[in-house]
């Protein structure tokens, strides 16, 4: 699935060259991973600007996204990342009722293609149902 114009425009509008380079690298890697999914899964995938940031979804459930943090970093976030059991992918602050985890990058050289590929695979295999969190009054249910 090619990156939508809105995500390309988002990346271009980021405030610094470092932000733009990191975002472009992440977007290309995420998009390439989604493109290799089986057709039945790929057909449920979409990427769009959601809550002002690029986010990839499967069957309407947010999986992964990124956003600028401060002057020099981009944060890559996996909505179900706490369940990945990955020491290199820190959980969101204690007390957070969600299952998200993320990592900050200040340069493209910091992005480990091997780690990113493993985390993206886990993001497909391990999902919490954020799509229906409002309907369930804030309760998260594990999918798959």
Features:
144 residues; alpha+beta; 5-stranded antiparallel beta sheet; globular
| Percent of sequence in beta strands | 25-35%
Write down the overall mean pLDDT. 92
Rg result? 15 Å
Shape: globular
Which CATH-level-2 architecture? Alpha-Beta Complex
Give the SSE string. HHHEEEEEHEE
* Number of structural domains: 1
The tally of helices reads 4
Helix content: 25-40%
Instruction: State the distance separating the first and last CA atoms.
Output: 24 Å
Low-pLDDT runs:
none
How many E strands? 7
The name CATH uses for the topology is: Aspartate Aminotransferase, domain 1
Q: From the helix content, strand content and strand pairing, which structural class follows?
A: alpha+beta
Described by strand count, sense and barrel closure, the largest sheet is: 5 strands, antiparallel
User: Would you state the CATH class?
Assistant: Alpha Beta
Strand order of the largest sheet: 1-2-3-4-5
Description:
By secondary structure, the chain is α+β, with helices and mostly antiparallel strands. It has helices at residues 5-12, 17-35, 39-42, 113-125; strands at 45-50, 53-58, 61-69, 73-78, 101-105, 127-128, 142-143. It has a single domain (5-143), classed as Alpha-Beta Complex (Aspartate Aminotransferase, domain 1), CATH 3.90.1150.200. 31% of the residues lie in helices and 25% in strands. A hairpin with a 3-residue loop joins β3 (61-69) and β4. α1 (5-12) runs antiparallel to α2 (17-35). The mean pLDDT is 92.
């Amino acid at each position: 699935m090619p990156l939508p114009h809105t995500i390309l425009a988002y990346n271009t509008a980021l405030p610094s060259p470092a932000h733009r380079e990191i975002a472009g690298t992440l977007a290309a890697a995420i998009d390439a991973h989604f493109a290799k999914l089986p057709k039945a899964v790929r057909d449920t995938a979409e990427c769009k600007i959601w809550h002002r940031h690029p986010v990839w979804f499967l069957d309407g459930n947010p999986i992964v996204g990124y956003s600028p943090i401060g002057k020099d970093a981009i944060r890559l976030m996996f909505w179900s990342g706490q369940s990945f059991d990955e020491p290199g992918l820190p959980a969101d602050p204690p007390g957070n009722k969600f299952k998200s985890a993320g990592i900050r990058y200040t340069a493209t050289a910091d992005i480990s293609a091997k780690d990113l590929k493993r985390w993206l695979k886990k993001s497909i295999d391990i999902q919490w149902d954020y799509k229906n969190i409002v309907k369930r009054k804030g309760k998260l249910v594990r999918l798959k």
